[in-house]
Design brief:
With 81 residues, this protein is mainly alpha-helical. The protein has three helices and no strands.
Length: 81
């Protein structure tokens, strides 16, 4: 009886240990794909930010704001980019 109780307790403790989630692993720096943003990404971000600022200055909301920002971003820049 004591052996069965000990075996049961051992099994239950192993189940408790096995069911714990694995700790998160640190990302491997050799496989990291975080490249610095390109100049094109920086220009696109600056243009979007400027369009959003213009929409806010014009106090546009809802669908009007969405249409304005979409058209603003699609419009060619003064530099011809």
């Amino acid at each position: 009886m004591r052996v069965a109780f000990a075996a049961g307790a051992l099994c239950l403790s192993l189940v408790g240990i096995a069911s714990q989630p694995e700790p998160p692993k640190a990302p491997d720096p050799s496989t990291a794909s975080a490249a610095p943003p390109s100049n094109e990404d920086a220009v696109r971000h600056a243009k979007r930010t400027a369009c959003l600022k213009d929409a806010k200055a014009k106090k546009l909301v809802g669908a009007d704001r969405s249409v304005f920002v979409k058209e603003c971003i699609a419009a060619p820049t003064a530099a011809g980019t």
